[in-house]
UniProtKB/TrEMBL annotation:
Acetyl-coenzyme A synthetase N-terminal domain boundaries: 1-58
Enzymatic class: ligase
Organism: Magallana gigas (Pacific oyster)
Entry EC no(s): 6.2.1.1
Pfam families: ACAS_N, AMP-binding, AMP-binding_C
Protein name: acetate--CoA ligase
Organism placement in taxonomy: Eukaryota, Metazoa, Spiralia, Lophotrochozoa, Mollusca
InterPro entries for the chain: ACAS_N (IPR032387), AMP-bd_C (IPR025110), AMP-bd_C_sf (IPR045851), AMP-binding_CS (IPR020845), AMP-dep_synth/lig_dom (IPR000873), ANL_N_sf (IPR042099)
Start and end residues of each AMP-dependent synthetase/ligase domain: 64-482
Amino acid sequence: MYQRSIEDPAGFWDEISKQFFWKSPPTGEFLQYNFDCNKGPISIKWMDGAQTNICYNALDRNIDRGMGDKIAFYWEGNNPNDQGSITFKKLLEEVCKFSNVLKKIGIKKGDRIAIYMPMILELIVAMLACARIGAVHSIIFAGYSSDSLAGRILDAKCHIVITADGVWRGAKLLNVKKIVDDAVDICTKSSHEVRTCVVVRHLSPSEEDVSNLKHDENTEPPASRPSLKLKINWHDGRDVWWHDIMTGQSPECEAEWMMAEDPLFMLYTSGSTGKPKGVLHTVAGYMLYSATTFKFVFDYHPGEVYWCTADVGWITGHTYTCYGPLNNGATGIIFEGVPFFPDAGRFWAIIEKYKVAKFYTAPTAIRALMKYDDSFVTKYDRSTLKVLGTVGEPINPEAWLWYYNVVGNKQCAIVDTFWQTETGGHVITPLPGATTTKPGSATFPFFGVVPVILDEEGREITEPNKEGYLVFKQPWPGIMRTVYGNHERFETTYFKKFPGYYCTGDGGKKDSDGYIWVTGRIDDMVNVSGHLLSTAEIESALVEHHKVAEAAVVSHPHKIKGECTYCFVTLKEGETFSEELGSELKTKVRTKIGPFAMPDFVQNAPSLPKTRSGKIMRRILRKIAVGDRDVGDITTLADETVIESLFNLRPDDA
Ligand code: 6R9
């Protein structure tokens, strides 16, 4: 199948497309593309001219196939006593009602909708409703700060935000609505109007709750919903309750028939310049690719329960919590909580509770959980498990083996799936039961994907184990089509360095058996717990502090997170560095970008190692960060004494 998929991609995917519903089927040229920026603008079109709707395929098509009463999602709350579920039929009804809501408030095909929500079923309803009426969803992970959220609302010019009042994350109660309020204020200051904010009542008590609940405000762990602790502000005229606006809506809504290459959603990912890029995916190609990778990589069989722990706010949640599983009629789980609440056995408890067969998580979670006694895992029944997946960063063999031996009890296939927000779905991955795996290798390309390793000059490296740039030679249906509002940036970021190839930004090598090993980012990106952060973005947050003149941020290895950030800051004349200032700067980054971006180390740097032309030599900073005195070639360095002084100023815990 792989051979056919790369020799005749159009024929291969045409056959697969027959499993879907088309209002008007693909008839013209199945694939048209230009991957070479020397030959003209980069463009990728699959099934151009065909008409379909991904929400219709995910719901109506499956209901027509007799799956109406099947559970589409279980919902597992942060509190183990909080749970729910929704069938395909009920999900369609809710989606149609919310589609009608969106239409009622004036949303039309092509409008962008910002979604900032915790892991609750309404999040799925909201995104599918957008897809149903042709609105472009822009989901922002509900862990981003109000600044980051505002930046994304502004970039996409969203006039509506869908959110919830709050969420429990472990023992922490987060006021989600407050972050949205602050973000909307920032937008208003930039003369952009957010007209409507739809709020799901998830935790905040209604008046009736307030009078009925005898709730000890200081009870920990948190009691079940609602919580009297959560108090939100309300902006009349702008804010509307989800349940109010849904009342009386018809549970039917005809799907908008979308052109294959119409936009489906955008999702922001870090950019090396510091400004996030709105990665744009289109309807039909993404539908084919998300569904097909899901089917083969998890070897999904009807009746199985599948669980992807990723938040829907990341691409993994888009493709492998929502669209991929639903288009296969699979039963999934939406988990609101965190792996350590109430204790480090939570993942495995959920696997037992729902008899999960296919499980998908991140290496950072595995590393964090393997520190605990194995009994946290083994006390739960995991005999239903068949495939265990990982994604987000390279997995170290030690974690891989623990996942295989302890979690999977040596009975499960491990699939280490390499892909990106930009690729839409898995691009390098084993197929369970079919691919012989090696711990730490993502193995081989998925159907339609042609990976190549290039050297600095753009020549293909054929020599085994020699590291180079990981690039792809031809498009697959799920590849991104553009950066929202900035096609030039799309071309420069991914296609300029090596004309004719899509450049991942990752390094990789092939071993003598042809297995691909992804070695990590080779641009100015840091992968913290599977989340890509741009060093430039962190640097600009740091220099916003009035005492900071210049900042340089590099990656530093971290036992659990994989990588973390190490920041060098040069203070303004007359300022002195202190531990206190260090913590203040960490908090600055946290509030500017989000909690997950908080740096682990901040070090004083009276001056930075620079080339004579003034470029910061990050290669040297990376060495200093880990205390490695073998700094390599320093002939281009303007002032050698800088190095010694920086070594002497390293924080004690680094
Ligand atoms: C899906 C997702 C993409 C970056 C990617 C790479 C890293 C993801 C990986 C992996 C090695 C794997 N990455 N999976 N590295 N092995 N199996 O994570 O998307 O958030 O856009 O991150 O993550 O560096 O370039 P995204």
